[in-house]
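User: What would this chain look like folded?
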Amino acid sequence: MLRVQNHGAWNNSLSPVLKAGHRIFRATWWSANVLLVLAVLSLFFAGGWEYSVREYLRGFSDAIIPAASSPELKVEAILSWMRSGPPRPMASNPDELSKRDPETTLNYQQLLSVCGTATNAFLNLARSSGLNVRRLLLLTPQRTTKHVVAEVLIDDRWVIADPTYRVLLRDAQGHFLTRKDLQNPAVFQQATGALPNYPREFNFDRFAHVRVARLPLDGMGVRKVLDSINPGWDEMLDWSLLLERESFFVLIASAAVTLLLLLLRLILGWYADNRLRITRFRFREHVFRAGTAFFTTPEIKQ
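Assistant: Here's the prediction, encoded as structure tokens.
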């Protein structure tokens, strides 16, 4: 809050330029405060939204995944549910369904039949059961996405599960396979040869966890810059959670905007105190004084 003391004579002594600067500052200050309030409200809303989504997924996963199972059995339980679970409704217009809402992706047959949303449903259930998982995009030579699978951490190895085909990929000896293993054409044939209608072009020659080429101007060279700074940047965080769960994205975005607006408010407050010499209404000081007055025992005059 801002206020100007001795508003009459003091304000009249200001030059027109300073008066205009003060008006601009006040407009900026109030705009920043209004935006900060909205950002905080958005943060609380997003926090409640994300909490409700997590509770829904926890109950869903508890119903289909044995809690004491090994990671392998948990994955198989999820894939079994996707393969032969209860009947799911068919949407009359699948394009209107939210593809980043777990409650939607888990409950419509059309979404469980598409690689992107099927993998999203698998990842959400796997995380809720305590598994470490992430999505993996298989790319064409032009770096467009041709298929989406999941990586699951089992025995300290990121092995491949294909939720679209409801399978953990194994070689002829039954060993789980990593993306590096599947770059071998013979191993890839062992893992996928028995799967009906599995496209041969769904190989692992090119892949990514985040496809920055979706940004304007072919990603603006962001990947090259990030790769030069830290080649493993796209595996450092669980980007799939941020990019594929709408409630989590809104929560992180709201938190980032709130922090930026708090920083802006601090900078504006410093500028008001040290440059413009405007006396501010300090909310914390007034709350402290009110609390002190409320809890202090009054003196009784004789």
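Residues 4-10 have pLDDT under 50 and may be disordered. If you want, I can go into more detail on any region.
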